[in-house]
Amino acid sequence: MDVLNEIMRNSALGLLSSSYRNLVLLLFSTIIVTLLTMLIILLSYGSQMSLQFGY
To answer: Which of 38, 39, 11, 37 is nearest to 25 (CA)?
Structure first.
């Protein structure tokens, strides 16, 4: 936890107030969880999907 606090203190997040910092971290975490969920769904059901490329 000390390493994480040190990284945040030395990054651009360190200049923000704690509420903005929490909001940025929540947004980043939401994006990461969404991407991981999409990857799991793609790996699980990818063989059953039909992809079509066209104009």
So the answer is: 11
pLDDT above 90 for 13: no
Is 47 part of any domain?
no
In a domain, 49, yes or no: no
Q: Model pTM?
A: 0.69
Domain residue limits at 6: 2-40
- What amino acid is encoded at 49 in this protein? M
pLDDT at 1 (0 to 100): 67
Residues contacting 21, CB < 8 A, separation 6+: 8, 13
Task: Name the residue with tokens 């063989």.
Answer: 47
| Number of separate domains in the chain | 1
Those residues with Cβ within 8 angstroms of residue 25's Cβ, 6 or more apart along the chain or in another chain: 13
In a domain, 52, yes or no: no
